[in-house]
Amino acid sequence: MVIVNTDYISGKELEMLGMVKGSTIQSKNLGHDIGQSFKTLVGGELKSYTEMMNDARALATRRMVEEAEKLGADAVVNVRFASASVMAGAAEVMAYGTAVKYKSE
């Protein structure tokens, strides 16, 4: 499955199948939340949250691809990510794009 953030794939004529998306809501456990709150006092990267968001993006992307595969897509173009805080320590991540099929020549 080809996944790109452009609205085209070089050398391919595309037939649009529709929008596909995948999402997840992730949180860290209370121990990580407390530890990371102390880190905000001194500054620096919150590695536990960086890892959480990377995992969330990967899961959301996988779910988007699964939805595209159900449509018989060859690729997903114009892929975008969105995130939002749901509550303290929890975030939603969504991956979305347009599922496409390569046109036969």
Top keywords for this entry?
single chain, 105 residues, alpha+beta, four-stranded mixed sheet, 4 strands, elongated
What features would you describe in this structure?
By secondary structure, this protein is of the alpha+beta class. Helices cover 35% and strands 40% of the residues. A 4-stranded mixed sheet has the order 1-3-4-2. Strand 3 and strand 4 form a beta hairpin. The two termini are 20 Å apart. The model has no long low-confidence stretch (mean pLDDT 87).
Give the arrangement of secondary structure elements:
Elements: E1 2-3, E2 14-27, H1 30-42, H2 47-70, E3 75-87, E4 90-102
Parallel strand pairs: 1-3
Antiparallel strand pairs: 2-4, 3-4
Give the N-terminus to C-terminus distance in angstroms. 20 Å
Radius of gyration: 17 Å
List the total number of helices: 2
Number of strands: 4
Largest beta sheet, briefly?
4 strands, mixed
Summarize the structure.
The chain is α+β, with helices and mostly antiparallel strands and 105 residues long. The chain is built from two helices and four strands.
